[in-house]
Amino acid sequence: MTEKCVFCEIANGRIPSIRVYEDPDFIAFMDINPISEGHLLLVTREHYPSTLDVPDKLLDKALTLAKRLAKAMLLGVGAEDFNLIVNNGPMAGQLVPHWHMHVIPRRSKGEIPIKTGDPADLTKLPFVAERIRQNLQ
Ligand code: AMP
Ligand code: ZN
């Protein structure tokens, strides 16, 4: 892709970013609207819209890299806890349709408006789990 994708433009240097890491497959840069100080984004150089589109080999590398970046981020900004978040698709809150993982330090519980759900219906939960199991490949 494309001139329209902001992360493609960042990857190819046409839009500036504050980079903390780069290699042939990934770049990592500071989120311009941080949820908390230190919030960074790990982004594939290639344009893949969602996790489902990213080759497995790159995804394996992404988690190892996220761990490395998180360690550096926590030391760098003075935090102990963090979230790794990937939004996939607009219903999941993905605004930029180019794969990225948020690496977000957490110093208090209120910084991300994530709410837990209601208690599960325990008579249904095993069947839900079984439907997922049946579709595992
Ligand atoms: P998502 O909702 O998962 O697609 O998150 C997109 C993230 O990209 C948001 O946290 C934005 O603040 C961030 N973002 C958008 N444009 C830029 C940019 N030019 N530089 C850095 N971060 C950006
Ligand atoms: Zn892109």
Overall description:
The structure is a single chain. The chain has one domain: 2-Layer Sandwich (HIT family, subunit A), CATH 3.30.428. It has helices at about 5-10, 55-75, 125-135, and strands spanning about 20, 25-30, 40-45, 80-85, 100-105. The protein is built from three helices and five strands, in the order H-E-E-E-H-E-E-H. It is about 30% helix and about 20% strand. It is globular and about 50 Å long. The longest helix is centred in the middle third of the chain and has 22 residues, at about 55-75. The structure holds adenosine monophosphate and zinc ion. Adenosine monophosphate binds near residues 6, 33, 41, 93 and 96.
Keywords:
single chain; alpha+beta; globular; binds zinc ion; 19% strand; HIT family, subunit A; five-stranded antiparallel beta sheet
Report a brief summary of the structure.
This protein has helices at 6-11, 56-77, 125-134; strands at 19-22, 26-30, 40-44, 81-85, 100-106. It is of the alpha+beta class.
Heterogens: adenosine monophosphate, zinc ion
Rg over alpha carbons: 17 Å
Helix content: 25-40%
- Overall CATH architecture: 2-Layer Sandwich
The CATH superfamily appears as HIT-like
The span between the termini is 29 Å
Low-confidence stretches: none
Instruction: Give me the number of helical elements.
Output: 3
Strands, helices and their partners?
Layout lengths: L5 H6 L7 E4 L3 E5 L9 E5 L11 H22 L3 E5 L14 E7 L18 H10 L3
Antiparallel strand pairs: 1-2, 2-3, 3-5, 4-5
This protein binds adenosine monophosphate and zinc ion.
